[in-house]
Structures
1.
Amino acid sequence: MPSKTIDDARLTVHREDPPGDGRYVFYWMQASVRTRHNDALEYAVQQANQTGLPLVVGFGLDADYDDATPRSLRFLVDGLIDVAGGLTRRNIGYVVRAGHPLDVAASLAEEAAVVVMDRNYLREPRRWRAELADNVAVRVVEVEANAVVPVETASDKREWAARTIRPKIERQLERFMEELTTTPIDHRDPPDLESLDPTSADTLLEAIALDDVDMQFSGGEHQARAALRRFVEDGLPNYPDAGTVVTGDLSSRLSMYLHYGHISPVAIALAVENSGTSRGARDAYLEELIVRRELANNYVWFERDYDRFTALPEWARTTLAAHRDDDREVTYTAAELERAQTHDRYWNAAMVEMRETGYLHNRMRMYWGKRILDWTNTPEYAFRVALDLNNRHFLDGRDPNSFANVGWLFGLHDQAFAERDIIGKLRPLTRSGLERKVDVDAYIDHVERITGIEIEGS
DNA sequence: ATCGGCTCGCGCAA
DNA sequence: TGCGCGAAGCCGAT
């Protein structure tokens, strides 16, 4: 059965070399930790079949990556365990080693005839991929498996806002919204390589010196698909309400799985598109999943300083500078904020939910973030604190969306509004506005119930 | 309850 | 060069 080839636009050939005389095709798994609907994995299978070699998938498990926490590591490990079953069933080798991802990959690449990599967007893994490609003498191909429209196919520059990238993405949707078929691998036993036991949570956790953690959400592609099924059945039909119901399960909660590559955005988009839900609800969700998410990819891909205040648009930095010395009614330090010790119970509830569960509804994220600007000494400090708390506490932290969303609090991809104290011309989001749109008492109850922590403040 | 103004700059039409 | 309009708003006038 001939398998469908991967769209050329998903491929970045780092090295054109013919396959080397290695013993296997090596897929360095990093950003797409799943066995279903993974373009990089399917491409690697096709390369294995073409070269007549077995396929080895390898992952470098590193407890020292930026902003790693017990919770984020546990979620990552959930994903690694899940992958083991899917790979074994397909007779694909699977190696998990503790260590820096680039070191683990470089070591496995030494005996590889072809190297396949998946793609994420942040600067460190981008540099690692380039470095690996520089240090081997075989064919090296990177495969985009985590976006609907590959970032450079959608646009060749940093986009200004959703409205500027939207038509560019929509023009390409038909081409890239395609089911990915699974390619059967020719039967060849993978080589026996040194690895941790990737089916044992205890082994993996021990390798990174991590005690088991209480988790509100579990990672892995099985949980991701369950979340998708739940969302398509219950959340999606009510999606117009999802923006104001902050306590329940209308939100998809898929962003954490997308962040770890436990699910494919194309698979989600197809499931939503093929559901029986109304056009309006489908479009509202697909706008978030594709246009806004891929605007964030565009931002970190084309803006070198995506994690810096200086990357914000000129008008936003100018207006914040003009209000730098405005009086603040109250200021808090990063530590006070993290302990949820402000005067504002809505804010404290949001901080507690974020800190204790790793999740927060979008509307609460916006309220949470906008207040930090009001309650800290300088906008630069506010930016740093918001990004740091975001990236350490959210299960979807350090995603391109993290940088775009925190930037949005400070004017990125947004427009100007009537000038106010402190925030200047940034879009305001007030406490009364939150009360207007959200059942705040129900929200406080919800947070107290799920965390067992009493929320203080007025 | 609804509406216009606030405010900026991109991108397209002309 | 002019003009419409936008990632989730707010406020005051009607």
2.
Amino acid sequence: MSSLAEIARICGVSVGAASKALSGKAGVSEATRQRILSVAAQHHYRPNRLVHAIQSGRSMTVGLTCNDFRNDFSGRIVEGMLEALYGADYDAIVISWDLCVHEGEKVLRTFAERRVDGLLMFPPADQPSQAYLQELKTFRRPIVVVDQTFAGVEDYDFVGSRDFEGGGLATEHLIGLGHRDIANLYYGKTSTGRARLEGFREAMQRHGLPVRGNWLAEIGRYDGNLDEPYELARRLLSQKDRPTALLAFNDPVAVQVLAAAHDLGVRVPEELSVVGFADLKMASHIRPRLTTVAQNPDELGRRAAARLLSRIGEDGNGSAADGPGVVERVPVSLVVRDSTRPPARGA
Amino acid sequence: MSSLAEIARICGVSVGAASKALSGKAGVSEATRQRILSVAAQHHYRPNRLVHAIQSGRSMTVGLTCNDFRNDFSGRIVEGMLEALYGADYDAIVISWDLCVHEGEKVLRTFAERRVDGLLMFPPADQPSQAYLQELKTFRRPIVVVDQTFAGVEDYDFVGSRDFEGGGLATEHLIGLGHRDIANLYYGKTSTGRARLEGFREAMQRHGLPVRGNWLAEIGRYDGNLDEPYELARRLLSQKDRPTALLAFNDPVAVQVLAAAHDLGVRVPEELSVVGFADLKMASHIRPRLTTVAQNPDELGRRAAARLLSRIGEDGNGSAADGPGVVERVPVSLVVRDSTRPPARGA
DNA sequence: CTGAAAGCGCTTACAG
DNA sequence: CTGAAAGCGCTTACAG
């Protein structure tokens, strides 16, 4: 990789002159500038941005920790982020959240040592260690938490979805169809899961409908296989007094509900209405097409990145010191498809 | 962010001494070292890795371009890469491939300016511009292409799956079940799609079975909605002489085939056997569970990263100059589930 | 054991 | 218009 010094030497000028010529600054004759420019192009000269980062104190990079890239939801969040960052000439250094949980402090140290200008945290359900939270405190740069909150990050900016409203929307939809016996397969370990459940509860209460204990199932372990959600759904649907409708934590869980119903011979939507959450691509691909609460992951990612960039712009290490973070909630909307319909039997 | 100079000043030593103490080098008394260490810890001193990158000529970062993070396949590749990189104390600067296609040269320039030590390219179907390929040539660092090849990158190292064998495996499975009338919904725009089709062709030929033109459908446009694959499947299955089995380009396409079959009232697997490719999570979640050719994306990612790291280790700008790149093919395997069974009517 | 100096690749005031 | 020098934050020979 040819250096400025080489270019300067070839052109017979000082590095200072070469620097000015290449950066478009005044102080060199047009002839000299052209000569330098052409030599630089010939030699594929690429200015070393690391130097600029050191000199300016801005690395023009942000750290990005993501829980998993395996689904259409987090993937689109990441894409939204990358898009917004790219537009601001920023790049992302990406580390998977798994590593954050297991070696969290080390990961944060890496980010600090690489002098990222800010941090985008897309956390999963697993609560990070105390050491991690501790290290976060000493991370003197803006942080934006995305989608999910957890204990210890209340002070940072947050961009998420209107999960509570989403839970309400889904419930209202089912109640509007005439359902009264509504089950909920929720994921209490995450802030989103709890909010959706609360939205459900509140809507049920508003309509004077009871939330029955045996129609409430909590997912304890959420992994890629989704074995537990499947089993829970199966158990729930095997009961004598089966619900006529079910709200799932999200689309993948809803797919497990469909699978369990299928395996038990319970027809959807004839005998059971199912609502998901997220509106992943799969939701409209499977049969029956899934009714779900659509989120806007791209927007989530873009807004999170935009907020971080604006914090970085504010300068003055806009970290926790500034007091409680700003909370932004992206709207959700109900998408009605084929997995819901009025109940067959009277409630 | 406190600097070494500050730490040194506080301790009343030279920066040189502080540097030695913190890096564990000899040349400072144990007492001094301890003092420096404790002051550094108190002030949350984080060495500036950008400086180290400049001094050593190694940034300990690699560029990673990915076509889309939206699915379980590419996501797991990326995770495999991040895992391997992290183990070698490397980090990834991630840019989405979309940007590579549209502003490819600019993206590569960014990587060059950030002095990444190598490049992991996970390309999609879209052929990048000439300007991009041109810029690639002047990128004097190792490059590893993953999963998919395209014209102009034959000289770089490549890590992909045994797509050809996979196509053969799937076909042999169907033939073994007694199918003779096998359709193929393929994606000719990608190297993987072409290889799978060839594997199919070769297997059919080996068994003396004809590949019928009207049972061969090429996907022209592959996007997230998969509207075209759905339509193609629908048309294919609406023919008078319907095939008894169908090979899909990949799992998402197979899901569209299931949807089309469902919508036409064609029962799977009773009237139609369907085989996918990839073994995404969804494959075992949907009903009927999908028979598919399993790939190993994590391994793909890990191997690609390992190969890149080894090239970087070799030093001497191991780029195209070294002649044709090494090609590595990760094995695939058939996973038989519920979407395939012997044909009902005689062939 | 400790400090002063050079150097990594650049930019930016400051002299000629 | 052009060059020499200082400085960004560090490391590493080289003197004391």
